[in-house]
Inverse folding.
């Protein structure tokens, strides 16, 4: 283990995750290298210092108050503010309207192409043309 | 019976509506839940209020608890999300009202503050200890939420990487990375408080 790589082992060592052989190599390097030892002691020192943080103990009667709180009604479901619903409605309307518009144009184009194809077809009987137009107009009124 | 088996047995009774089992569960975990929340929010009263919400949530969600995971993992996940929700709610309020922000500042300054122990032999030492406690609280609260929860569970509760990963819903390598980044921040912020630190 050398100076550039030793920092990579700091976390594993703090969490006691370093295998025994690596731990011995780590310790051996620190014994001979004052700079690395200082870096390690500072790193481990701040972690140890954090452990001195004191949190308060539960106050007297906490358990009883918590059990009593079961009696309180469940909180009402959180509703979205009105402006969010309005934005959502506008988005849905815009997407729906846009989709209908695109679909409508596509149907119109297709019908116009069909008309043109039928009228240019000289060998079609009249009744075929009329029947086809009836069907087309019935399904896709312009 | 292991601790987890005892927890699972309690949860089964709670699921059946047994208030006495709920009381036992609160007795058992009040300290750890309050400590976890206090280290995240800083205020003792608020920590108790949120801890009560956590326990009520445990009671109301008991039917959804499956003993496939450790009970504490489930409990800590509820704690983590309760704290996150509360902080989101606070941020929303702060942006909605400048007044609310200004009112919350003194509380934040006060957070973590504890009166000096009058019985302390050396007042200077007591004051230094109080300042250290204040700084430790501030540093913890200012960590990003995921890093903070990882640090609290690792440093103060001695939880494994795997359990922290389950609470945070991430992988074990991600937990290692969260802890490393948090430790680098702690190093920068707490170095002056080390003996002979600069």
């Amino acid at each position: 283990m050398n100076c550039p790589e030793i920092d990579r082992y700091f976390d594993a060592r703090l969490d006691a995750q370093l295998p025994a052989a690596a731990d011995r190599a780590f310790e051996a390097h620190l014994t001979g290298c004052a700079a690395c030892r200082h870096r390690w002691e500072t790193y481990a020192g701040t972690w140890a210092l954090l452990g001195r943080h004191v949190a308060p103990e539960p106050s007297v009667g906490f358990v009883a108050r918590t059990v009593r709180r079961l009696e309180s009604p469940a909180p009402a479901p959180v509703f979205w503010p009105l402006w969010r619903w309005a934005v959502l409605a506008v988005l849905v309307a815009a997407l729906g309207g846009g989709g209908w518009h695109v679909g409508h144009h596509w149907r119109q184009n297709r019908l116009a192409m069909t008309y043109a194809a039928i009228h240019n077809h000289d060998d079609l009987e009249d009744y075929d043309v009329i029947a086809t137009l009836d069907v087309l107009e019935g399904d896709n009124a312009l | 019976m292991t601790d987890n088996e005892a927890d699972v047995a309690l949860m089964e009774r709670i699921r059946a509506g047994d208030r006495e089992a709920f009381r036992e569960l609160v007795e058992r975990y009040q300290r750890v839940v309050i400590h976890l929340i206090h280290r995240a929010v800083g205020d003792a009263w608020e920590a108790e209020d949120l801890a009560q919400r956590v326990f009520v949530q445990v009671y109301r969600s008991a039917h959804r608890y499956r003993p496939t995971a450790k009970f504490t993992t489930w409990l800590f996940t509820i704690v983590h999300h309760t704290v996150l929700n509360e902080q989101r709610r606070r941020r929303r309020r702060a942006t909605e009202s400048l007044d609310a922000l200004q009112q919350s500042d003194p509380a934040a300054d006060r957070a973590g503050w504890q009166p000096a122990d009058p019985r302390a032999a050396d007042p200077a030492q007591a004051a230094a200890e109080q300042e250290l406690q204040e700084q430790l609280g501030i540093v913890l609260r200012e960590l990003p939420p995921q890093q903070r929860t990882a640090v609290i569970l690792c440093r103060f509760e001695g939880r494994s990487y795997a359990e922290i990963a389950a609470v945070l819903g991430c992988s074990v390598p991600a937990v290692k990375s969260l802890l490393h980044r948090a430790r680098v921040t702690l190093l920068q912020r707490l170095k002056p408080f080390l003996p002979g630190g600069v």
Summary: Chain A touches chain B through 29 residues (CB under 8 Å). Chain A is about 70% helix and 0% strand.
